[in-house]
Each structure stands twice: as C-alpha cells, then as structure tokens.
Amino acid sequence: MTERRRKFYAWGFEDQSATPEEIRLVESTWAEQFGIDRFDVIDPPKLDEIELQPPRIRNIPTSLAPLCRQDKYERALHSYGRSFLDGARMFKRDFAHAPDVVAYPRNEADLVALLDWCDEIRAAVIPFGGGSSVVGGVNPEIKGDYTGVVTIDMWYLNEILEVDRESRSARVQAGIYGPDLERKLKEHGLTLRFFPQSFEMSTLGGWIATRAAGHFASGATYIDDYVESIRMLTPAGPWESRRLPASGAGPSPDRFVMGTEGSTGIITESWIRLLERPRYKVGATVTFPDFHSGVAAVRAISQSGLDPTNCRLVDALEAQLTKSYDGGKPILVLGFESPRYPVDSEQQLALEICRDHGGEVLDQSEGSGANNTVSGLWRNAFIRGPYYREHMIARGICRETFETAVPWSGFRQLHETVIDTVSRAIVRVTGRPGTVTCRFTHIYPNGPAPYFTFHCLPDRDRMYEQCLEIKHAAADAVDSCGGTITHHHAVGRLHMPWYQRQRPDLFGLAFAASKRTVDTNGIMNPGVIVPEKP
Amino acid sequence: MTERRRKFYAWGFEDQSATPEEIRLVESTWAEQFGIDRFDVIDPPKLDEIELQPPRIRNIPTSLAPLCRQDKYERALHSYGRSFLDGARMFKRDFAHAPDVVAYPRNEADLVALLDWCDEIRAAVIPFGGGSSVVGGVNPEIKGDYTGVVTIDMWYLNEILEVDRESRSARVQAGIYGPDLERKLKEHGLTLRFFPQSFEMSTLGGWIATRAAGHFASGATYIDDYVESIRMLTPAGPWESRRLPASGAGPSPDRFVMGTEGSTGIITESWIRLLERPRYKVGATVTFPDFHSGVAAVRAISQSGLDPTNCRLVDALEAQLTKSYDGGKPILVLGFESPRYPVDSEQQLALEICRDHGGEVLDQSEGSGANNTVSGLWRNAFIRGPYYREHMIARGICRETFETAVPWSGFRQLHETVIDTVSRAIVRVTGRPGTVTCRFTHIYPNGPAPYFTFHCLPDRDRMYEQCLEIKHAAADAVDSCGGTITHHHAVGRLHMPWYQRQRPDLFGLAFAASKRTVDTNGIMNPGVIVPEKP
C-alpha cells in the first residue's frame, strides 16, 4: 500500500541501510571492546520464515475493506516498534503479537468510520505514526478482553493544510514524517527545526502524542512548546482546541492530549508554531579534565540565560565508542544558531564558562560544522545510529538506551548509582562486563536530562529476556534516585510500572476518569498510560 | 487575625492609599475626558453600614473553631475579589454573598481537617490567596445546594521551606504574597521575577491556580514555566508531583492542576524554578506614526528570537490617559535584562527593527530606568493603578479591563471589532461616550496578548449592571474574533459562559470527570471551570 516500503523488521526503508564500511566499524569496535575475534551473524528475518496467528478479526465491513490490510508484510511491520528489545524478538522470528488488521485511513471520515467500527466490535486500536517507539508504544501486546487489535497507520494523512505566514504557523496533518514536513515547509521559507533522533521515521502526531523532545538542547526543547492547537478524534467524537498563541483560560486542553500516547484518541492535525531557517550558526567542541568538571560547566551554562542550541556533554567512553574523540576525556558539543543575528558572542561567553571549569576548546566552526570536527563526527554517529541497530542485533550485541531528568543537586548520585547498578546487572545477567555511558541530551536551569547507553553480549537465545532484566534494573535505579522514568522516550508499555510509581496516585485516577469520558469501551491503546483493568 | 489588615472593600492594606496628588490627577484627567466640572464623591463603605446574612453554618467543631472567623470584617473582606464590578457592589454596601465562615489554617494538618469537615457537611470551599481576582474567582456566589460557604484563606502558609541553590529552586508554601516571597528569596541572592500587576496582593498558590502571567513580556511569560512540582490537597487526599526539571512521562500532572482555579483542591506548596537577580538592564521608549506600525514592529521583534523582557506597545490614547506620553502617538516600552551579560546589543537590534517600521526612539536608559522616562512614567501608572480604583468608583467612574491573545493574522480584525463594539456598547448602555484603549502585555512569535481598558460614566445606581453589560459585549466580541476569553485574568465565575464556548466540549466532560475523582461531592470552588449542575 505504501509506495516506498518500510523494512518490516528494522529501522528505515527497504532502500536504506548501513554501508559496509559502517558495519565493519561497528564490528571492529565491539570485537575489541568485548575481546572477541569475530561475531556470528544471523540473517535478518524474511517474511516466509515468519508464522503469524490467523487474524481474529474476519468480517471487515465492505465499506472499510479497501482501507484494511491483513497480509503478512503489513501485520509484521506493525508488530513492533524499533527498540533493541523489539529487534531481538524480530530476529528470533517471534511475531506472536501481530495486529489482526492494519488500517490506512485516507482522510478523517475514514478514521471516524474505523473508530466507530472498532468501538462497536470492541477491537483494541493502536495509533501508528512512524512506528519508531522504543518503549512498546505500538506493540499489540494487549491482555484484555478485546475481539482483536486494529493498528491504524496514519501514513496518508501527510499534508500541510494551511500556512499562516504572518503568524508563522501552519496547520498540518498528523501523519506527516519529519523529512516530508521539513521539505514542504521549506517551500514557505519556514522550518519546525524539530529533529529527534527518530526524525526520519517519526511523525508530527507521534511527537505530540509522546511529548517528544527535539533539536534544541535548552529552552523550548519539547514539541509541547510548538503546538498551537490540536485536533484529535476520540471514540466519542472530535476534540479540537482553539488556535491561540497563549491562553490562561483554565487548564490547557492541549496538555490533556500531549503525552497521552494514543490512550484517548488519535491526533489528526495540529496548528504548529514555526521558525525561520537559521542564518547564523556556530559550533565548538570542548573537552574537560573529567566528567564532573564538564557537568559543572554545563550547569553554569544552563543557568546563564545563553540558551545554546546544542549543549551535549558526552562522557569519555561514549566519545570513544562513537569514534568522535579518542582523548580519554569527555567532550561537550556546543552550538548556537539564529535566523536573524550573529551568535558568536553567545558562543564566546559559553566557552568562557567552559574554560572557567577547566575546559579546553578542541575546535570551533561556522555554519553547520564540518564533518571532520569532533562535533561533526559525533553528530554523524548520532544520525546513523538507528541504521546500525539491525547489524548489531544480527551479531548478538545488545545496545539499549534509557534517559531521564533530575535536578542538578541529584545528578551526581543518580549518575553513580545508575552506572554502578547497570554495570553490575550486565555482569550478573550476561556473565561478562559491558559498557555503560552517559551524555546529556537536554539541559534546564534546574537540572539535566542524562541519556544512558549500555552495550553487552547476552546469550544469543535469551537476548530479549536478558536485556529486559538489565533495563528493569536501570529503571529501578533511575526511579530510586528521583529521576523521571522518561524525559522523551515516552511511557509505552515498557515503562508503565515505573510511570505508575512516579505519577501522583490521584492523577492516575483522574486521568483514567478523563479517558473513560472519551473512550467508554477502553479501546484506545489499552495498557498505555492507563493500566488495563486487572 | 492578620496583623496588618487588608482593606475589606478595596485594593491594598489599610495603611496604604493613593496620595492626594494622585487622586487630584485622576479627577482632572477624567473630568476633562468626560467634559464635566466635578465628581460627586461617595464615601467608602464602613463595616457598620453593612448588613450581612447570619451565617448558615453554626456548629463549627471545637477542634476547628480556633481557625475559623465569622466576624463582619472577615466575612466582608472575603466577599469579593478586586475588580471594578466587585468594587461597585461594595460601594453599594451589597455584601449579600458573604461567606459563612472564613478559615485560616496554620499548617497542612489544619487544612486536611477543614476539608474533611467541609466535605462532611457539604459546605462549598473557596480557596483564597491574595483575593485579587478580577473575574469573580473568590466570590461566594454559589447557586447549588450547599450548607454554606467556607472560604479558606492561606495567609499563614507563607514560608520558604527549602532552597536548592545548586538547582536554583525552592520549595515554597502557596500562601506567600509576592513581596514576602521576593524579600525571602533575596536573602539567598535569588528571585522569581514574577511581577503581575497584582504582585503586592497575590500569592504563589493563586498564581499557579490561575495560570498567572508575569514580568516577562516574551518567552516564559506564565508561572507555568517556573513550576517544578506542585503539592495540592484535595477532598480525596494529597496530590503531589515529583520534582523534576522536565519529564515526558505521560501528560504533565502539574498541567492538570495549573488553571484549575481551586476547582479540584487547594495548592499547599510548590517547588519553583528561580532566577538570578538581573545585573544588566537597559530600557527604551519608542514612538510610532500609528498603532499598526507599532504592531508590525512588535511582531517582527516577537519573531526575531530577541526575547525582550519588556515589550509593551501602548496605544496613543492609553499613553495619554496614563500621563506617560502626550504626543498623540503610540509608545513601545522596551527593555532587556540579564544576570550575566550586557544586553545592549539585543536592545540595539530591537531598536533597529523599530526604526524599520517608522519607530522614533524617545529615550533610552540603563539600569531600572529613571522615573522621568516615558517608560518610567508608564510603569509607575501601572503599579499604582490598583490603588486608584476605589477613588474612581467613589467618583462614579467605571474603569474595567479585559484581555486576550490571538494569532497575528487575526489581530487587526479583533482590535477593530473590540474597539468598535465596546465604544458603541458604552454609548448604548450609559448614554455617553467613553474611552477604549489597547496595549500589549505579552507577545509570542505567533500572536500578541492585547489588553483592553475602558472607561465610562454609568448611572450611579446601576454601575455594576451597566458595566457588566459592556463587559459581556466585549467578551462576545473577543470570542467572535477567535481570541481566548482570557490570557491571564483567569476564568472565575465571570468568564464561564465564554470559557465553555471556547474549550473543546469533550475536554469539558473529561475535566469534570477528573474533578469528580478528587472532589466527589463537588465542594471545591463550585461553578468555576466546571459549571455547577443545572
């Protein structure tokens, strides 16, 4: 149905892949790290190796049949998100939880008809944007008493419907992918400049539903701040907020939608606030004698009011493993940009703060930054990372990530606890050491958003189970140190137990009551945000 | 009970007042404006002129009796907020809706006991911070079937409980007044720099409950952005969010509290993000050939990324009536500040934008700005304004305000419609012309927050009714042009009909369901945000 086909088992489209050079680099890095000679490589799954349960939903109404697919490719493609945990199961040819139907609405009327039908037959509905969830947000693993699962893929709702140049805003359909959005905005000289790592394979609606965080390392980091209004379809009908630059009229209706992860409805369109394309850009890489000197510098920058676009502190091991910097010291990827005025003085002020904390400037650049700067190398590794995943899984290498945010005063303890807990969990679970690294993705005046990556070599047959056990240890550690269970990866099904610990109990009850008013039969993404009934 | 007594019938404390010079200036301005020789002056109400209904609640439990007051001063003080509409009724000696009990909890245990008691006897509870509401948010005008009204005044919950210097945050009790908060933060070299016009007579909890907007004209304008976590007591128990710099874990629980205006519980404390005191400040006043040239300049500034601290465009008539500038042209009060680095270049860039739109710089200043600049005169009129109100009411002058926000593309039509509608409503209702003026209080890249003020001379006996009729015409005009019913004055009881039109219908149902989970008996500020049952 989709002209350019997405890989059903891994990141990206079928015409995209890591290059042989990239794969060799991954192999050599991790062979050296784990002290092994070579990796056994498992082939990626092919459709004819996969067995799916017959779909539980059979009688699709004639009027909806043209929108619905039940072939193996579509059902397999929509069985998982794109985490390592998902990949490990896909490489095991485990597609036990495939959706029964994959529906592609062409417009809102289609979507209304689909929701009505699902509500009538009590099928669970999984809203699907780019399918890049790393937290089980789109996985049809639903325990409750439903007649089946219908995944609704928003692929065709991908137009810019209206541009208001004067107010620098646009009304956009929720199913649009990042690159498509930017390409269409560019025709108007505008940009959203919202570049999460999933940019290529995620949608505006997905960003809003999961409260994604994007390009800007400080200031307006979340998509939340770029949303002017939202239109959502719920089983009870449409929910649309008035388009406003700001409003103090009661609790924000949009904030009742953002972060609900499809548990109350499907976002169909949104007015978004846009930016002008940056004209001035500067970048620099700074190294520090040790991680906590870097942390102190970044804290000072976060409280300076300078608001860098980029301010990503990467610890020494992560800098080395990503082939960005081999100096055995942490690096800070720093950058400023503006559409209107030069930002050199901001950069110089930030570099002064770095020097005050023992920072040494490795390079500086103008414009987008050459690829041969340390920051350029890091950025490239960041963008290409998702394409490596399938090749690491094929080689039995577990690479997982988790992220949080915590006040500055709690960071040192959280960092120590997490690194220690996860390192030990890796040894305990897999029998040999792995790596645990940390960087900051976003910074706030009152605390950082640290992002952790771990690598290990689990048992080939138990990759999913072992990785999951380590993830659970990590989540417990983050939670016990007062961090949030997620800064921007969302809750999904994976984070639900910790999310329920974190949120106020009464909020959980209040939100569940809200959900019931718009989704009486509880069909919307069951088990996400609101737990399935026991 | 309160050492320094608040005026029961007007803005401020009993030891504060407008000066005789200020009163003379008000008189001469408006005598000239309305073309009359002199004003008949009505004396402010005295307690012994007022008759209150006997309290409906009589049997206060012994354990709570020390917290509760039923004397005339306390009941009168808590009968109204501080709008013109409130004042008009107070000067008419109309205190028909006095609360039955005014309770002063000393701590959270007191508050729990009070809420339990109110829930048990089904008394309506009105949370009371500084009582500065201009939208009937604290007025005990409740139609439903309650045994009475208990107003809970948070006066004694006014401590800073904890300061986290490293994370630049503090845990503060909700009943603290603005000046007290800043005085106590100053001891730590910190500031919230949150200065709504109500600053002197409003509280942290009130700001959060009503989503107040403060000092900063652009960027982080709302208190929302300074809230790290909230603790609220509801009839069902405490609701407390985890203290975090940012989180993407589900919809924000704090955003479910901010803007609820006491309809779900009483905020008792909050972790707030603080700022350093500004070290660099610059200001300027610019005038423009006409209002819409100024609008165009401000729009360009709002989209430049410069983020001025002050950017208040004041139309020619408002500049003249506030005695700020008599040149028959609009003024722009512009300012930048920073704790860390000079902001002159930002100011110069903004002034360049102004000149591109025909702006002429009237004055520039460093530091806080001398009082003899046009901006200084305007600021003084702004701060002193609330103190004039009682003297205007005494003279039969109606002065009311309303405010909104709208995309830039909708502003011109909204502005024309509102000025025209309200001007004509004044003539129709009062039989003679008044004034309607406009300024911008806050600006966003996608639209301004215009603030309108009208003055007229209603019938002395029907001041409340006539002013209300004009307000309704204004609200209809704002609503019909797509503006929000309020940018920062909140909803209260006054704005409910337009709020219900503005918000998504399903959101209204969803929020009402949320409320029921924490306030089963519907005792919390009935009729605000969630309509009373018909």
Question: Can you describe this structure?
Answer:
Chains A, B: Substrate binds at residue 389. Chains A, B: This is FAD-binding oxidoreductase. Chains A, B: Its cofactor is FAD. The structure is a homodimer of 534-residue chains. By secondary structure, the first copy, chain A, is an alpha+beta fold. Chain A folds into 3 domains: 38-153, Uridine Diphospho-n-acetylenolpyruvylglucosamine Reductase, domain 2; 160-276, Uridine Diphospho-n-acetylenolpyruvylglucosamine Reductase, domain 3 (2-Layer Sandwich), CATH 3.30.465.10; 280-480, Vanillyl-alcohol Oxidase, Chain A, domain 3, CATH 3.40.462.40. The first copy, chain A, contains 14 helices and 18 strands. Chain A has helices at residues 20-34, 72-77, 84-91, 108-121, 178-186, 204-210, 291-302, 316-321, 344-356, 374-394, 408-430, 463-480, 496-502, 505-518; strands at residues 68-69, 101-103, 124-128, 149-153, 160-164, 169-173, 190-191, 227-234, 237-240, 266-273, 275-276, 280-287, 310-314, 331-338, 360-366, 398-403, 435-444, 447-456. In chain A, the strands form 5 sheets. In chain A, strands 5-6-10-8-9 form a 5-stranded antiparallel β-sheet. A 4-stranded mixed β-sheet of chain A has the order 1-2-4-3, with helices on one face. The first copy, chain A, is globular. The mean pLDDT of chain A is 96.
